[in-house]
């Protein structure tokens, strides 16, 4: 089995790039951020205080999270409900960033993530895939772009959907999330020592997909 780990900060384009590369290579694409988001959503729905670690850890017993594939597309199921669309809000992003710093939350999701890589060729994207989840991955990529470029892309994306977007607020959120994700004690966001760093600040989307696909083909053979 071949495992490709793609890690990097929020908004670097990991999921859109990995999705296309996986389709081209015939691998399964897994977005692990969606799992942390589902836990965030559960906490919001239950009005839990996410800064109360014990409350969040106790709530894990009440969560059953699964991934299914619908025409190659990943869907996340939280307690028998498909929450794939609901987890895409900024509020869920912020909550996921906080709860993902709790070691028990990370441990809770570990076997689910590893299980997919045991049975399939996968491209898995997240923050700690190359360092913790799949340290044996044959290909490790750390995908990044400047915070300003990531905020500009996110603003454009929202505006294209007809949603009003505030570039400065988005930039502030990105910087805060980068800080949280890279300064937590457990599995902080950082490039694995054997990863290839790809900076997409000055690359178009098509160039990024081509570069990643090429890297995987070269390293996985
Ligand atoms: O990739 P994303 O923005 O959907 O991730 C949501 C949050 O989950 C993000 O703030 C960091 C966290 N996360 C993580 O800690 N480890 C992962 N493997 C994936 C996401």
Keywords, separated by commas or semicolons:
Rossmann fold, binds 2'-deoxycytidine-5'-monophosphate, 8 strands, 221 residues, 3-stranded antiparallel β-sheet, 9 helices, 5-stranded parallel β-sheet, alpha/beta
Largest β sheet strand count, sense and barrel closure: 5 strands, parallel
**Overall spatial form:** globular
The percent range for helix content is: 40-55%
Report the CATH C-level class. Alpha Beta
Bound molecules: 2'-deoxycytidine-5'-monophosphate
- Secondary-structure-based class equals alpha/beta
Cα-based radius of gyration, to the nearest Å: 17 Å
Strand content: 15-25%
Overall number of domains? 1
From the 3D coordinates, which CATH architecture would you assign? 3-Layer(aba) Sandwich
Q: Which strand order spans the largest sheet, edge to edge or round the barrel?
A: 2-6-1-7-8
CATH homologous superfamily assignment: P-loop containing nucleotide triphosphate hydrolases
Oligomer: single chain
| Strand segment count | 8
Our measurement of the CA-to-CA distance between the termini, rounded to an integer number of angstroms, reads 12 Å
Q: How would you sum up this structure, described in words?
A:
- By secondary structure, the chain is of the alpha/beta class.
- The protein has a single domain, classed as Rossmann fold.
- The protein is 50% helix and 17% strand.
- It contains nine helices and eight strands.
- The protein has helices at residues 14-25, 33-45, 53-59, 90-99, 103-119, 129-133, 147-160, 167-183, 205-220; strands spanning 3-7, 28-31, 65-70, 73-78, 81-82, 122-126, 139-144, 196-199.
- The strands form two sheets. The protein has a five-stranded parallel beta sheet, with helices on both faces. The chain has a three-stranded antiparallel beta sheet with strand order 3-4-5, covered by helices on one side.
- The chain starts with a strand and ends with a helix.
- The structure holds 2'-deoxycytidine-5'-monophosphate (DC).
- The site of 2'-deoxycytidine-5'-monophosphate has 15 residues, from α2, α4 and α8.
